[in-house]
Amino acid sequence: MRHWLMKAEPDSRLVKGKDVKFSVDDFEAAGTTAWEGVRNFEARNLMKEMSVGDKVLFYHSNCKNPSIAGFAEVCKGAYPDHTAWDSSHPYYDPKSDKETPKWFMVDARFISRASNFVSLSLLRYIATLSPDNLPEEIAYIGSDGVNAIKEMPLLNRGRLSVQRVSQECWDLIQQMAERGGWENIYIQKAGRGKQKAKSTENTVTKAGEKDSRGDTNNGDMSRRNIDPEGAGLDHAEVSNGYKGRKRKGQLDGETDSIVAPRRKSARTK
DNA sequence: GCCAACGTTGGC
DNA sequence: GCCAACGTTGGC
Question: How many CB atoms within 10 Å of residue A227?
Fold first, then answer.
């Protein structure tokens, strides 16, 4: 079984008149969704490698506090993304047709919301720490964990909306989302998502506020992403307010069980 | 095939 | 809203 990270935008954003927002809340409500809209070749190719049962980190991009906001799994392997054939659709691609589908999507099933959103800024902060001398609150990450985080495409390949995740990072992030507890060593700035080491000051913002559901998140989350084809998904924010957009495509009338958010990133401006 | 122009992503 | 990074397009 493999592990992946897929982006969506938790904040509303209109593309061709349609809102591409797809937040973790939307995902939870939908249950299962078709990941349409990826319009980047590398991201598409990664989706083609996915198998039923593979685990997915659900990421909120293009929002105030970009974060890993939940967990999901692949429930249907790659199949042609029909939204590329609909000229009225946000992810329409005139170069794709039914005879030779250019873009593909998978279906993903929501598993759970992250009790504590694991923000990009926190991961970036951890990547700056000396692996052998971690604050005790996150000592469990270990030096191997810090090194694994440093190698995540999320930190180095920002624009890729579908990414591979190592088993080690999957385990670590799941643990972090469950435990939280970094608010004393790391502070999320209110607005933007920059972080600062906490050490001496307390003036700043707080990390770890609770969101409406009682989760502790830093930042907000939502926006949606749309990615036309395989590449682009998008973002999210953390904490309570997220902005959210989604990226997945929402299928409008597909089966009852599938909602289809979109996830690609292709912004069709 | 190179590469400049252009467009998009997405953090900040 | 800005803009850096980076992917894509298309002329040559």
Answer: 39
Calculate the angstrom distance between C1' of C8 and CA of A62: 21
Domain ranges of chain A: 3-217
Q: How far from chain centre, in Å, is Cα A167?
A: 17
Cα→Cα distances A269→A14, A227, A236, A253, Å = 10, 12, 19, 25
Say how far apart CA A182 and CA A7 lie, in whole Å.
24
Task: Report pLDDT digits (tens) over A164-200.
Answer: 999 999 999 999 999 999 988 887 765 454 566 665 4
Spatial distance between the Cα atoms of A245 and A263, rounded to a whole number of angstroms: 9
Distance A39 CA to C9 C1' (A): 15
CA–C1' nearest nucleotide, residue A194: B12
Q: How far is the CA of A251 from the C1' of B11 (A)?
A: 29
CATH of the structural domain A3-217, one choice from 3.10.590.10, 3.40.30.10, 3.40.50.150, 3.20.20.70 = 3.10.590.10
pLDDT at A196: 64
